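Design review, sub-item: ligand-bound model
Attendees: FS, YL, KQ
YL presented the inputs for the uracil complex:
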Amino acid sequence: MRVATLANEIDFDGWRKAARAFRLEGVEPSQARFVVAGGEDQGGLFDAPLTAHPGESRDPVMSSEKHAFQDVGPCEQVTAPSPKELGPGFRRDERKKETAFAVPKAFVDLAQAVILHRSADRFDLLYRLLWRLRDEPDLMKVVTDVDVADAFERAKNVSRASHKMKAFVRFREVQDDQGEAWVAWFEPAHRVLERTAPFFMRRFTTMRWSILTPDGCAFWDGQVLTFGPPATRDMAPTEDEIEEFWKTYYASTFNPARLKTGTMQGEMPKRYWKNLPEAALIPELIAQAAVREDRMVAAPASTPNPRLAQTLSPIVRKGEVAEDYLPTSLEDLNRAVQGCRRCPLWRDATQGVCGVGTTAAPLMIVGEQPGDQEDLAGQPFVGPAGQVLNSALDEVGIDRDQAFVTNAVKHFKHEPRGKRRLHKTPVAGEVTACRWWLDSERRLVKPRLIVALGATAALGVLGRKVAIGKERGHLIALDDGATLMITAHPSYLLRIPDEAGRAAERLRFVEDLARVRDTL
Ligand code: URA
Ligand code: SF4
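KQ shared the predicted structure:
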């Protein structure tokens, strides 16, 4: 057994020198061992160290800078150290004498990432790969190979850990003799502090900051980035003064041009959102991204960091939304609606209420806006109007679950009346603002037939005012190839005071829905 002692857990240079020496000596992977100085695994009593001379503090092979792998284009040349360089005490097994061989650059890059993986056997895995590379120079392309796949997987985990660090590190303000500084405590999944710290240096160039982790610390004094020993959580301040600053940071550095909601969701799973101050901003940032992208293109480098309020204030108007910002799923859309600021209705609502149903639905039923109960439940048509709708659908044999049920306006417009919230009809401007979401739902669901319940729904679908009395029950061809039918709103039935009138109106409503069923 041969043992190489590495300076620390992420000592790539140390590993590569030792691995190179082992490989050229013909030390089989099962006989090579890499331990970290000061670490738990110091090798067995009888393991032969790579250090060949008693009394010399560092092994000549390990310390000889000349023998670092040299980058030669896409390959690295691995050459044998000379006996002189190896020193008098170093005995090479002459039977296994090697000539130089090339290592693909892809392997070196991969190894640099894998070294950061928090697994004890990562050095061995890399040495196995290095060992095989001489006889299998194309090994790195064999992605089905167990070791290659394992190494790529670990590199991916490391890369993900670095991304998460960029997203989740939160600085808190502290005062020291030089004034204000920022400190963050973070526990990365893998040893990515050194790799990721330059990102923070570029982001927070003008601030003094420290990132403390159990693996080590990074310090930026405005000039120089340095690294120090491991820290414990109690070294970082715990107070939350920083929240507003951090929100502002996120709001102003959020790069809309690179926004991919799917990616974002992956990077910052929803369960984390509630713990992070900036998470409060994410939905609205998503919703505004398209507009901000236009601005960024217009004024690329010189956008000043806007204050939080300014970032949130502009109302996103139709036409400003870039065509390539489209929700890619109903889930996406649902999340983005929560941040919509296209009109003021979001302010007083509990939440945005999007459509419910599958994208396979051939029928879309469009109401006006969520009511009091819908606003609380986050689902359309669950209150009294929903019951009228359900019973009429039942009567004509339309399964509500086969329809996509939504509203023209996604936030509940109301005014307080004592403890109650009274429904208020949205104005045309609000309906028009919200059409962007309805259009998105239509694009995702692509229903064959749309039923608009009432004038507001019809305005949302058609984009023009309609007189229900004139257009009710007609089949209207829409630009996207779907057909529209306009009928009354179930709440209208509920408001008719006399029972006979109500029954008559309900009958008409049911007749309209029967026509819908037949058209389907
Ligand atoms: N009225 C509507 O138009 N939509 C609802 O979701 C509930 C009541
Ligand atoms: Fe946006 Fe529609 Fe809500 Fe207005 S009502 S804020 S347009 S989602």
